[in-house]
Amino acid sequence: MTATIPANIAVNSDRLWASVQETAEIGATAKGGICRLALSEEDRRVRDWFRAACEAAGCTVSVDGLGNMFARRAGRDATLAPIAIGSHLDTQPTGGKYDGIIGVMAGLEVLRSLDDAGLQTHAPLELINWTNEEGARFAPAMLASGAFAGAFTADYALSRADRQGVRFGAALDAIGYRGDAALGHPLSAHFELHIEQGPILEAEACTIGVVTGVQSIRWYEARLVGSDGHAGATPMRLRRDALLGAARMIETAHRVAKAHAPDAVGTVGMVECKPNSRNVIPGEVFLTVDLRHPDDAVLARMDAEFRDAVAEIAEMDGLELTLEQTWESPAVHFDADCIAAVREAAAQCGFASRDLVSGAGHDSAYIARVAPTTMIFVPCAGGLSHNEAESATQDDVAAGANVLLRAVIETDRRLSGQ
Ligand code: HGY
Ligand code: MN
Ligand code: MN
Q1: Helix, strand, or coil (residue 26)
Q2: What is the spatial distance between Cα 129 and Cα 143, in angstroms, rounded to a whole number?
Q3: Is the pLDDT of residue 38 over 50?
Q4: Which of 23, 221, 246, 357 is 20 to 30 A away from residue 108, measured at CA?
Q5: With 50 as the cut, is the pLDDT of residue 1 above it?
């Protein structure tokens, strides 16, 4: 019975930490990070690990047509939609050991701890590994959780190609994870534990971030076309140098973000230069742009400012510019009851906590469209993430998992009307 939360209920910190470190071996990089791109061979191996661990914990595992994995733990009332705990196991090419992973491993630890305590929840529980959260290989990010929530069609997701031209659907088939479960099903709630990936919690000596929402995000792809030319024989006044235009675009993205400081951010993360030869004036450049702000209206102004500025750059440098907005994820506000459950759980555990809006995108941003959702943050060293040196402490990860455990039990109690 989960009429009340047993005062002594807690996760097994060592077991949780061991799972995090064990899976970090899959795709481990020499610098201590992880390279586990979505739908890669490394992703297949960690998925196999995840399936086996969930089945060993007594769950039934299903996979949908985009590779989202659902490990269901039976509740007393099978007619209720499950309370979900989700995050992701794919990483950036030079990712850390904790981004996404601690959310999935903490969810597994919650299931294991309930077993240890002999507790069966009223509603079923469902631990979810969302496919392609990072968007590092297949843009946009949070693609499969977005499709689950109806933001994208399955066909759109399956058609997305990486920079080598490999399509999502083909990569999914190659690792054998195109499942037959329907895309989308009811959830009673969705909780996600994640490292903050920013400096606030550490700076304020807060163990728990009570996440109230996610900021607004826009992604773009730009193609600049000028003219290849000889680096030695072409006078400067005759050049149409695509890389010069790209350099001005990079500076523009930073300038537009700084103009809306302190909350705006702007990043050019990918640049591909053709023909990429040291004595040829680059005739073509592909680049990506990531603009974000907590307020949709401010991000819309940043969009307009950026577009105007880069059109002038193309004109000035005699370049042909193609600028496509490839993704827009509006600001998200999480569910008040879920937030309250997290806040109460942190208080019960005696952890210092503070509210904050997530700078990073997360699967929860889309799942919030179809289920009451919120997130729990724990600190990471220096706020560093998307970096092989990303690190978190065992105590903080366990603290986050204990808050997750209690928030889930409390939500189950509330939903069962107890
Ligand atoms: O881009 C993001 O914020 C996330 O890491 N996918
Ligand atoms: Mn993440
Ligand atoms: Mn990430």
Answers
A1: coil
A2: 13
A3: yes
A4: 357
A5: no
Cα of 186 to ligand 2 centre, how many Å?
A: 23
pTM of the entire predicted model? 0.97
Domains of the chain are: 13-215+331-416 (3.40.630.10), 216-329 (3.30.70.360)
Q: How far is the CA of 74 from the centre of ligand 3 (A)?
A: 30
Looking only at the bridges linking them, the beta strands covering 280-281 and 229-230 are antiparallel
Number of the ligand closest to the Cα of 101: 2
Tell me what pLDDT residue 5 has: 63
In contact, 142 and 68? CB cutoff 8 Å: no
Residues 53-89: pLDDT tens digits?
999 999 999 999 999 999 999 999 999 999 999 999 9
Q: Ligand 1 pocket: which residues have CB below 6 Å?
A: 133-135, 141, 360-361
Q: Please report which residue ranges of 282-360 form alpha helices under DSSP H.
A: 296-317, 336-349
Contact 415, 38 (CB under 8 A): no
CA distance 198 to 385: 8
What is the DSSP secondary structure assignment for residue 261, as one 8-state letter?
A: T
Separation of CA 386 and ligand 2 centre (Å) = 9
Q: What pLDDT is stored for residue 2 in this prediction?
A: 45
Atom of ligand 1 nearest to the CA of 197: 5
Task: Give the closest residue (by CA) to ligand 1 atom 2.
Answer: 361
**What's the token pair of residue 399?**
């603290």
| Span from the CA of 99 to the centroid of ligand 3 (angstroms) | 6
3-class DSSP state of 185: coil
In angstroms, rounded to a whole number, what is the distance separating the alpha carbons of residues 144 and 247?
33
pLDDT tens sequence across 263-314? 999 999 999 999 999 999 999 999 999 999 999 999 999 999 999 999 999 9
3-state DSSP call for residue 144? helix
Structure tokens that stand for 230 in this block: 């000889």
